[in-house]
Amino acid sequence: MEDNRATVPSILSKVTIFNADKVLMVIIPILFVLSALVVYSSVAKMGYAHMGQQTNAIFTKHLVVILLAALTLIGTYCMSAKFIYRTAPFVYVICWLLTLGVYFFGSTNGGAARWYDLGFVTVQPSELLKVATLLLLARNLDFAQPTIGKQRLLPSFNPLRWRGKERQKQIDILWNGTCKIVMPVVASVALIIKAHNSTALLVFVVGMAIIFIARVLKWELTKVVVLIIAAAALYFAAGGGRVHTATSRMTSFIKDWTTPADTTVTRPLTDPDHAMIAIYDGGLFGVGAGRSVMRAKITHPESDYIFSFFVEEYGIVMGMMLIILYAWIFARAIAIFRSCRWLFGGLLTLGLALMICIQALLHFMVSTHLFMETGQNLPLISHGGTSMVCTAAALGIILSISRQANNRTLEPPEGIAAMSTEEDEL
Question: pTM here?
Answer without folding.
Answer: 0.89
